[in-house]
Amino acid sequence: MSTHESRLIPVLRPQQQEVLLALVLVWAIFIGLFWAWWLQPAHWAAPWGMALNTLLLFVVTAMPAWAYFFVVRMQRVNPCSPFPVDLRLGMVVTKAPSEPWPLVRETLVAMLAQEPVHDTWLADENPSEEVLRWCVLHGVQVSTRRDDPDYHNANWPRRRRCKEGNLAYFYDHYGYERYDVVVQLDADHRPEPGYLRAMVHPFGDPEVGYVAAPSICDRNASNSWVARGRLYAEAGLHGPQQLGHNAGFAPLCIGSHYAVRTAALAEIGGLGPELAEDHSTTLLLNSRGWRGVFAIDARCHGLGPVTFEDGMVQEFQWSRSLTTILLALTPKVSSHLPSHLRWQFLYSQLFYPLRGILSVVGVVLPAVAMASSHPWVRIDYPLFLLLWVIYSLITLLPLYWLKYLGFLNPPSSPLVSWEQMLFELTRGPWVLAGVMAACVDRICSGVHDFRVTSKQQQLRPLKLIFITPHLALACIGALSALLLGHSAGDAKGYVLLVLISAVSSAVAAVLVLGLDHRLKRLPLFQLGHHYATVLGVAALVFFTAVVRHEELRSPLQLTDALFATPLWRP
If you count Cβ atoms within 10 Å of the first and of the last residue's Cβ in the chain, which end, N or C, has fewer? Predict the structure, then answer.
């Protein structure tokens, strides 16, 4: 087993793989029928408008295709392959001043219990006497940059006020010299028994430079709908899709925990730049020819965002950081990547910009079409909605099969839930804001510090700014339908689309405020102006729907054509 691929085996048995391929084929056939219907010449009203709508539909329908490409080629570490017994191993957990010591202590206890033999480290920004005494008593070594000004810079990699600066100090002073492989964890990520063995096993292949693992932030899922929403939304990524990255593509390191071969890390000059150092490190390692493995059995449980504010700040920061990598780092190293990895990293970095843009086009494009008084497409709206519902259900079929087989992470994650839908609906504007901030940073060469997400609940009222984007989208949709709907001419069908988006945004704002209120159990008087603002916007949307009821009914009137006309004409 001298090659990287020979140490990996298919995840599914042949019969299971056949079922998966059949379900993906059903999805592909339906997509073909849908596009045959959509591209009928009779549907083309305005060439540019049709082209733009077609482009958006292509992006939306291509996203599942990208995921299924990897899902049908899932590979995992062969449990019978040789285990590397001669590696010098270290485990390190980072601690920022804002992270509570009891939380980090739980992680250290779980690290100390791991096998095989290894050294356990704490990389602490500013360790207290209590922390130092506990570490000495339990055999934990401490790395701190507290008194070293060279590790408090404004720029990467030895940057101030971030965990990567702590890790840079650890690697420079201890990691490169003492260890062959280091596993690094965030403060809140508590490893299960057997975690370290699963992380180290792939390093038996000398071509492997890093090992990625599933990020399962479920320790507070029972108390936070935002944590559940992200957990469910990413359940497929941290299982089937990452397994599909094995054997030829690049498993993506997730910052909460991953492992590196120190020789590989030293070759690229240390951890990659930006808050998303996990992604930039993955990119740099692959650009130097090192390969990665996703170890699905290396399970570690962390904390998700406690509040809506925490979740949206994370979305903003991650989208900003990934976009910065796309603009600044990727052009420098992409030429060193094989073409298939170049496309993989490009898609990964474009995900946030695409996600952010799609979050606002539902309001903006129908409003522009109404202002032009000319329809961009001529389609039967009820038939389109029916086909889209069928498409959505068929898209879920392969994922239901994988869930049945237990490959989602965590396995109990539902494929459809109100938490996931609300999370996806609300994060879009903040993702777009992060993308725009990265573009501004690139133009202005700005330097900014990042916020460490709180690991404890903060009993403060929700800041209105966190739902302002959703209220703004609701107002834009309602006002455009109210002011332009009557004079929209043949484009009156867009009144329905723009109001659907407006209602969705208004409902999202109401739910976020209500759920935050229930979570924090604050007195109602502290949120009086919040409720007044949100309900005022909701009333505007409702008023618009009443005034424009005729325009809303027009595209929804079912005709014989819905059931008598073929889906497409030759």
Answer: C
